[in-house]
Amino acid sequence: xxxxxxxxxxxxxxxxxxxxxxxxxxxQVRVKLAAAGVCHSDLSLTNGTMRVPVPAVLGHEGAGTxxxxxxxxxxxxxxxxVVLNWAPACGxxxxxxxxxxxxxxxxxxxAGSVYAHRSDDGxxxxxxxxxxxxxxxxxxxxxCVLRAPxxxxxxxxALLGCAVLTGYGAVHHSARVREGETVAVFGxxxxxxxxxxxxxxxxxxxxxxxxxxxxxxELARRAGATDYVVASETTAREIRGLTGKxxxxxxxxxxxxxxxxxxxxxxxxxxxxxxxxxxxxxxxxVTFNAxxxxxxxxxLSGCVYGNSDPAKDLPVLAEHIRAGRLxxxxxxxxxxxxxGIPAAFDNMVAGKGGRALVVF
Length: 360
Prior knowledge:
Layout: E1 2-7, E2 15-20, E3 28-38, H1 40-47, E4 56-57, E5 61-69, E6 81-84, H2 94-97, E7 116-118, E8 124-125, E9 137-141, E10 145-147, H3 154-157, H4 163-174, E11 182-186, H5 190-201, E12 206-211, H6 217-223, E13 227-230, H7 235-242, E14 248-253, H8 258-266, E15 268-276, H9 290-296, E16 299-302, H10 310-322, E17 332-336, H11 341-349, E18 355-359
Parallel strand pairs: 11-12, 11-14, 12-13, 14-15, 15-16, 17-18
Antiparallel strand pairs: 1-2, 1-4, 2-7, 3-5, 3-9, 3-18, 5-6, 6-10, 7-8
């Protein structure tokens, strides 16, 4: 038996329960978690913004040590440190054939499987976004684990599984920020803090952080922000004022709200790029008129998982960490146990703090 945070049903509170994990079958790996990050996507699963089969063990950003492997698994062995990859590419679908592995049509197929059972009543459990990281141990498909980078503590490496890949990829793969460009980042949570660091690594000349909370300014500046704007109805005007009345070359939205997306768009210069990372609900409708689309010549694009290929990007991120350019500790504002996840969700809704990290 292992302890896990179980979502019984959409809209229900998480329950800390004992679960029974099977031994890994062919093509599977059992992992003892070192840490798991609490991501806004987990909150979106609890409230139905994103949907997966339930009951489920959530958690998709994690790292740990291989306990055992099933038949046919050769790329990792017991004792290896690994980072969990919640969106493994199948390598066969149309998106994968184009090299766009972050859009793999079959990436979340595993979320529909039954991977464990509750110890108290034997009920089936699904693995959230494939990896069920909110548990002391998990069993995942072999393509859901990547070797952890050398020289990076496993508790820190957990953040590479979502926040850092997403933020870094938004800057370097989606928006393609060039040295000397100006960048605005909307939302100073875990992904926003990673995005700020990525913009600094890219050599942005001015990095403007935007958030509803004045208390996050210190966090933002530590991550690389040169300026800080408290979100209001005049945010776009303030950003233009900080950029010679032009607007930023790149705006990255990490919130997933219609008003924030619209403000990010309005903060971008003519011909600039607006990248949307935040996951919003179907009710969040963003509107544009035809004339402004023509006149401003801006590019508006969505960004899934940072448009990243984890197998290729993890070694790059590891080099930035070892060189001191990427500080993973700057993303984390609290270390918690499993039973601290609901409070971390509450803080997220209230706009407080950066990343909460469950440490096992």
